[in-house]
From TrEMBL:
It comes from Actinomadura algeriensis. InterPro entries: ICL/PEPM, Pyrv/PenolPyrv_kinase-like_dom, Pyrv_kinase-like_dom_sf. Pfam families: PEP_mutase. This is 2-methylisocitrate lyase-like PEP mutase family enzyme.
Amino acid sequence: MTHAILPGKTAAERRAELRALLASDQVVVAPGVTDAAGLRLVEEAGFETAYLTGAGLANAQFGLPDIGLISQREVADHVQRLAGATGLPVIVDADTGYGGPLAVMRTVRMLDVAGAAAVQLEDQVLGKRCGHFDDHRLITAEEMTAKIRAALDARGGDGPVLIARTDARGVHGLDEAIRRARAYADAGAEVIFVEAPRGVDEMRAIGRELAGIPLVANIVEGGKTPELGTAELGELGFRVALFANYLMRSMMHAGREALAHLRAQGETRTRADRLLPWAERQSLFGLGAYSEVDGRYGR
């Protein structure tokens, strides 16, 4: 794994890696992360990219629901921390871009500097809601294509991959979602994300109607989209599989069990076999590499 104290991959190298993955025949699996510890686990597990989930960021870092309360600066600062903790390309959920085209330009530039490998923008209004909630409000397709053009102008030629998401399925139906998706691709988005299709037939229609465009599937356990595996997603025409909150929810479940044990038993000794061992924890965060570099300077 890459450690921040040692020379690592540049942002341009990470973006090139992500673009190469998107151009391959494989389904790119992007587990969601909310912090550097989770990102380390994703890298250790052998995944080639990770997804900074907006919902997970709101939940885990701020204790808030996913209803558009996190700011542009808060996201950019967190991306910078993550980019410094890993060599993986990080896909960043930037919600609506935090405003109109000018705000989107500033968002893309901030995330570019922070080290994002990809930036995802969606076509909800500024007070957005999780794609698997109800009662979404959308901007027009024309307003979204203006945002896409602004994002492309802001990033330059080798900037972050641009992902455009539409939440139109839950508001206007599948046909309008596909129409918008095609318009967003025509405007220059490199990857298209039709959020929350209902059923395998709808997913098949998305893959068929948008064939040739790299497509995102967002698997939300308990959400509106069928919980398919990567092989099935590939057969349906999807190129990126987000498991946006699987890791966070798994860690929360384990943490709840751990705290219930401590509350009931008043000790942790009998549960030690359920903890990450001490030495593995230090290895995960690169203590050996930091100690070796420290030794070069006479410690």
